[in-house]
Amino acid sequence: GQQLNQSPQSMFIQEGEDVSMNCTSSSIFNTWLWYKQDPGEGPVLLIALYKAGELTSNGRLTAQFGITRKDSFLNISASIPSDVGIYFCAGFDTGRRALTFGSGTRLQVQP
Amino acid sequence: NAGVTQTPKFRVLKTGQSMTLLCAQDMNHEYMYWYRQDPGMGLRLIHYSVGEGTTAKGEVPDGYNVSRLKKQNFLLGLESAAPSQTSVYFCASSYTGDYGYTFGSGTRLTVV
Q1: Contact (CB<8Å) B105/A97
Q2: Burial class (CB in 10 A: 0-12, 13-18, 19+), A70
Q3: How many CB atoms lie within 10 A of CB B19?
Q4: How far is CA B34 from CA A66, A102, A105, B54, B66, in A?
Q5: Residue B42: which of A40, A48, A104 has the nearest Cβ?
Q6: Beta bridge mates, A109
Q7: Which residues, in sequence order, are bridge partners of residue A75?
Q8: Could you give the CA distance from residue B40 to residue A10 in angstroms, rounded to a whole number?
Q9: Distance (Å, whole) CA A109 – CA A16
Q10: In this complex, do A96 and B98 lie within 8 Å of one another by their Cβ atoms?
């Protein structure tokens, strides 16, 4: 089946630093999404991308949908302690009409 | 503003026991999904439903069954639990099925 390779697996940064993570796929997706999961909770949608090449921002978050439709990245600027969590990329599988998730990037922020 | 509610939140089962996980949504969503989350593997789709009375297999369906008798409820059953089914289970729903879901807060299941 389709697989999403997400990197890095984990990051430990200082408060105020910028963070970048990315996701690549062997298959084309027409929609890419980024989710954040806090401990003990379900994932929450951060950003959705619908067009190849699209660059979208949500506050300190910026995400891009790769031109090839096989990759996406997420940037977080000026990180703060509440950014701690697991970040997942997801691609929408039009066949199943379901999301395929990456393995996640665990982010820790040192105050 | 309940959204997606999963019950129970925690459960410990012995190998071979059966149980049903309940997912309920109050947003009139057509699409509902069951995922399992294991360390380092992200979320993997078990089964899903595109409407009342319909179910379909996802990526890892073996050992699980589902039913969607009412639009608002999606049940996940384990007939004979195995230690490999120790995981955190998430239910999600979506109105159109083509963008971000609403997730429940998860059920942590341990099979001993």
Answers
A1: no
A2: middle
A3: 15
A4: 28, 16, 22, 14, 9
A5: A104
A6: A13
A7: A20, A62
A8: 10
A9: 9
A10: no
**Which one of A50, A94, A99 would you mutate to disrupt binding with B, by most B Cβ within 10 Å of its Cβ?**
A99
Amino acid identity for residue A66 in this structure: G
First to last CA, chain B: 35
B19-23 average pLDDT score: 97
Distance CA A54, CA A27 (A): 18
Token pair belonging to B6 = 């999963």
Scan for tokens 């430990």, then name that residue: A12
The closest CB to that of A42, out of B44, B97, B105, belongs to B105
**CA angle A83–B39–A101, rounded 5-degree value:** 70
* A54-106 confidence digits (pLDDT tens): 999 999 999 999 999 999 999 999 999 999 999 999 998 887 788 899 999 99
